[in-house]
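Colleagues,

For the teaching module next term, I've prepared a clean inverse folding example: a structure given as tokens, and then the sequence designed for it. I'd like students to try predicting residues themselves before seeing the answer, so please don't circulate the second half yet.
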């Protein structure tokens, strides 16, 4: 069978542009600094790898079975968007008010001025890094739409997933390079960036909720 290179190229370009916008590899780095800037380098690398792999798995599942799964559960994509926005808003509050960072919590200090007690920091690789920051509602909706536009053509579906994997690799590299960015801007810069991005994340979360509620409201009044 003769390959339709123009169609495959168009699919690849559309997938790359769409997934680059919704996954936003460039925007992930400063957000990751705000969430994990105080953690050891090795731990940040492990979190970046786990988050990227988890996001990749979620994207593949939703690309192949997402629409069927949501329909089976009776969940609309807009309801999913509202839930993701609410969860993201809670993370934004923690960033703005510097909560959830055990290194700044005096309750973890040992009594009588001794060494700090050991703590177990929260694993942020799955939430909020993998979902909803990388594999958020926009990403999951986009992969379902892109797979749907392939009309069951295995070659075009393969192109969609390969290009998406490339964008996901860019996200992983952005997370890995966040350590170098953190060293450049310093601890004070991290605190400033954390609070600014917390406000921006809160606004993004509100937008997710507003968009979801708007569509649900219109559907309910139709």
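(Answer key — instructors only)
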């Amino acid at each position: 069978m003769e390959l339709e290179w123009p169609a495959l190229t168009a699919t690849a370009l559309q997938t790359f542009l769409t997934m680059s916008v919704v996954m936003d590899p460039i925007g992930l780095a400063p957000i990751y600094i705000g969430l994990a800037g105080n953690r050891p380098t090795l731990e940040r690398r492990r979190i970046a790898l786990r988050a990227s792999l988890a996001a990749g798995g979620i994207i593949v599942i939703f690309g192949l079975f997402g629409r069927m799964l949501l329909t089976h559960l009776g969940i609309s994509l807009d309801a999913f968007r509202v839930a993701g926005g609410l969860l993201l808003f809670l993370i934004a509050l923690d960033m703005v008010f510097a909560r959830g960072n055990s290194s700044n919590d005096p309750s973890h200090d040992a009594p009588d001025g001794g060494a700090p007690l050991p703590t177990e920091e929260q694993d942020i690789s799955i939430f909020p890094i993998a979902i909803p920051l990388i594999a958020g509602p926009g990403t999951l909706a986009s992969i379902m739409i892109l797979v749907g536009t392939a009309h069951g053509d295995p070659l075009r579906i393969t192109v969609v997933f390969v290009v998406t994997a490339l964008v996901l690799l860019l996200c992983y590299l952005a997370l890995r390079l966040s350590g170098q960015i953190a060293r450049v801007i310093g601890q004070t810069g991290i605190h400033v960036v954390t609070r600014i991005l917390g406000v921006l994340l809160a606004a993004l979360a509100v937008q997710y909720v507003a968009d979801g509620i708007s569509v649900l409201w219109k559907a309910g009044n139709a």
